[in-house]
From TrEMBL:
This is Universal stress protein. Residues 1-137 form the UspA domain. It comes from the Bacteria. SUPFAM superfamilies: Adenine nucleotide alpha hydrolases-like. It comes from Vreelandella alkaliphila. InterPro entries: Rossmann-like_a/b/a_fold, UspA.
Length: 140
């Protein structure tokens, strides 16, 4: 049913992604799917990496470690931006098409009042693409 599963990854908050990563591993095994880990980073130094190239190396290492866990084929896609906070939604929507994803699995926060003004990334991806989006709630 699913052949290409896209997983947005924030390397600064890996501990929050574990429930979603477990679901991705199960789905990928069940459907013999390819997993694409997608990261969005700044063009300037961040707490994770000094350059987009260093961020890409770290995401590649992360993907390699995840491959050891679930055994499914993996790849990465990194997007760099002058303002990742403002551009992440558009870049994730673009990544769905560019990667050929037919499912997006994302960790998401519990609903908040602020969502009325600033919707979650998962909401944006779900309403601006034609693929299935599976949001995994992260208890906070």
């Amino acid at each position: 049913m699913f052949k290409n599963i896209m997983v947005p990854v924030d390397l600064a908050h890996l501990e929050l992604l574990e429930p979603a990563l477990s679901v991705v591993a199960d789905l990928a095994k069940r459907y013999d799917a390819h997993i694409i880990y997608v990261g969005v980073t700044a063009n300037t130094p961040t707490s994770v990496a000094r350059t987009p190239q260093e961020y890409e190396q770290k995401l590649e290492a992360f993907a390699h470690e995840r491959h050891k866990v679930h055994g499914q084929p993996v790849s990465i896609r990194v997007y760099s931006s002058t303002d990742p906070v403002a551009n992440v939604d558009k870049q994730l929507v673009d990544a769905v098409e560019e990667t050929g994803a037919d499912l997006v699995v994302m960790a998401t926060h519990l609903p908040r009042h602020l969502d009325i003004i600033m919707p979650s990334h998962g909401s944006k991806v779900a309403t601006h693409t034609d693929v299935s989006v599976f949001l995994i709630r992260v208890a906070q």
